[in-house]
Design goal:
Blueprint (H helix, E strand, L loop, with lengths): L1 H14 L3 H7 L1 H22 L32 H37 L1 H15 L3 H12 L3 H28 L2 H8 L4 H38 L10 H8 L8 H28 L1 H6 L1
Helix pairs in contact: 3-4, 3-11, 4-5, 4-7, 4-9, 5-7, 6-7, 7-9, 8-9, 9-10, 9-11, 10-11
Length: 293
């Protein structure tokens, strides 16, 4: 009987497809991976090469349509749009990485603390989180700009502050569910403290929640950075930015609409790619959904 049970378990493990196999079969995840990979490749390539200087102004070539010399055309200052799109990807990735990392590290720590302490500590943290989320990220950025002036640093700080509340709430909810599991109760019975249980048992089991939230927040950060730059409180000239490219193109939206298409398309595809990756990771990591695939 024992041998039969062992053989059955071995067959089930062998039959269960691995993460890589399921990821390759997950169509939306792979599409998101391609779109996001293209954005990252463009940003890395722009560090070494661009068709033209993204900041070079050539008035004689302003508002040129797409051609062999300028694949995406030129803007109102004669700058090559393709080069600006490639360099603008750097800004989006840097803002997203720093803002999401800040939110993930600080927010996860606060969420884990609230889940471990419970009681009035949890209530105070969650009410502060609710208060923070009551202020949109654009309003936070405007408040910071009023005090320290516009710039990419304030945009990153505003996004980071907003992300802290998002991660704190997600991690706190996942952490509370883990604190009620049997292996955590066994660890408490063995005499382990809250800190040891959090680090050794809670955090490893909710990493997937943090990863999925980070992917989705990355997409939101790119969209928010574009919105802030569009309003003039984000990235400042001469640093290329997709949002500022949209803002500058609106003056020529009827005479040369193509200059607004490219930055808008870059934003849409990047955000779509990251959202597809986030949804795909949720499907692939969740054991219940994984068994359905």
């Amino acid at each position: 009987m024992q041998a039969t049970a062992t053989a059955t378990t071995t067959e089930n493990k062998a039959a269960a497809p691995g993460f890589g196999y399921r990821a390759l079969r997950h169509r939306s995840f792979m599409i998101g991976l391609v779109l996001t990979g293209t954005m990252i490749f463009a940003a890395l390539l722009s560090l070494l090469w661009t068709p033209h200087s993204p900041t070079e102004i050539v008035i004689l070539e302003r508002l040129r349509p797409p051609s062999l010399k300028h694949w995406f055309g030129t803007d109102r200052f004669g700058r090559d749009i393709l080069s600006m799109i490639m360099a603008g990807a750097q800004t989006s990735i840097v803002v997203g990485l720093i803002a999401v990392s800040l939110g993930a590290v600080v927010g996860a720590a606060i969420g884990l603390w609230a889940a471990a302490r419970r009681g009035w500590t949890e209530d105070v943290i969650m009410r502060l989180s609710d208060l923070n989320m009551a202020f949109p990220v654009i309003l936070i950025a405007i408040l910071l700009t009023a005090g320290w002036g516009p710039g990419i640093t304030n945009a990153i700080l505003a996004l980071g502050i907003f992300n802290i509340s998002l991660f704190a709430r997600q991690v706190r909810a996942a952490g509370i569910a883990m604190w009620e599991r049997e292996f955590v109760l066994a660890a408490k019975a063995a005499g382990k403290g809250n800190l040891a249980i959090t680090v050794e048992h809670i955090l490893p089991n909710i990493v997937s929640v943090i990863v999925v939230q980070a992917t989705i927040s990355f997409a939101v950060a790119i969209l928010a950075e574009a919105a802030l730059s569009y309003l003039g409180v984000g990235s400042q000239p001469p640093d290329p930015s997709w949002g500022r490219m949209l803002s500058e193109s609106q003056k020529h939206i009827f005479s040369s609409p193509i200059i607004a298409v490219w930055p808008g398309l870059a934003i849409v595809l990047s955000v779509l790619g990251l959202n597809l990756i986030g949804d795909g990771l949720r499907d692939l990591i969740d054991p219940r959904l994984a068994r359905q695939r």
